[in-house]
Amino acid sequence: MGAVLAAVLGASLVGCSSTGGKRAEERAAQAAEGRSAVDTPRWTFAMVTHSGDGDTFWDIVQSGAKQAAVKDNINFLYSHHDEAQQQAQLVQAAIDKKVDGLIVTLAKPDAMKAVVAKATKAGIPVITVNSGSAESAEFGALTHIGQDESIAGEAVGDELDKRGRKKALCILHEQGNVGHEQRCDGAKKSFGGTLQNLYVDGTNMPDVQASIEAKLQSDKSIDAVVTLGAPFADAAVKAKDSAGSKAEIDTFDLNAKVATALKDGTLGFAVDQQPYLQGYEAVDLLWLHRYNRNALGGGLPVLTGPQIITADDASELAEYTKRGTR
């Protein structure tokens, strides 16, 4: 079995080896055909997130997780709910199924603390992804995979300064999401201009558009709008056009539509946290923990972002966004 692990890990660590490259190609072909690259037991891992189907970001997270699950011979279960208490109930359901590993988001950590503790007490290894980096270790998770939301926000503030912006709106579409608050707070901290928060109902896109439009109409000095998710960037663009505003629209997260908008100048920049990696690495690290008691991060989060994406980068990434991995 040691040879199997070496085959799985070797090519990623020795990319210049022709043998390693050939093995990597073989494993990719196996995964594409739905065949695992290892012969470890068929463990069951569950992922429970605070958002999911119909959101391109979470589609990409799932894509990464499913690809890793195929490679690692994992039975992968996925569920989500945007209400924190219901998300906690889904985690409890996974515990009741006695899964071999658990991946959870901590968008509203207070509601998740007790159930994550139940998982760890039951001997189920937990990895947190996307949100909750500050609480992950405290709750007993092996590690957290994602971006530091405060650092990501600061990167946005710096980019707005580089672009000469003076007054920005930060659009929060999910009240109570600590990661969203951290993004806007980080941007406000580093931005040399003025940044205001605008809370909208993210479950009602026409309302999102109307709220942004009303704000832009009432304050013509706003020269930048930052949305916290790719689907909301499109609503902000429509609101800008309806309001006759000249504000630049920028966004967190990348998908095919955002890449196109970056190329044609409809959007200024995007902040990519590489959701495919969040799903893929979470499954892979759980497999490594089950098989070899490996861990990454040294007690600190494993960062997948932020990466500022502009029109110059969009063309290069277009093929990956079209296949749903960026």
From TrEMBL:
One Gene Ontology molecular-function label: carbohydrate binding
Domain Periplasmic binding protein: 45-288
Short name of any one Pfam family annotated for the protein: Peripla_BP_4
A cellular component annotation (GO) from this entry: outer membrane-bounded periplasmic space
Domain of life: Bacteria
Subcellular location as annotated: Cell envelope
Alphabetical list of InterPro entries matching this protein: Bact_Solute-Bind_Prot2, Peripla_BP_I, SBP_2_dom
Keywords assigned: Sugar transport, Transport
Presence of the UniProt keyword Iron in the record: no
Listed PANTHER family: ABC TRANSPORTER PERIPLASMIC-BINDING PROTEIN YPHF (PTHR30036:SF7), D-XYLOSE-BINDING PERIPLASMIC PROTEIN (PTHR30036)
Similarity comment text for this entry: Belongs to the bacterial solute-binding protein 2 family.
Annotated protein name in UniProt: Simple sugar transport system substrate-binding protein
Organism: Streptomyces fulvorobeus
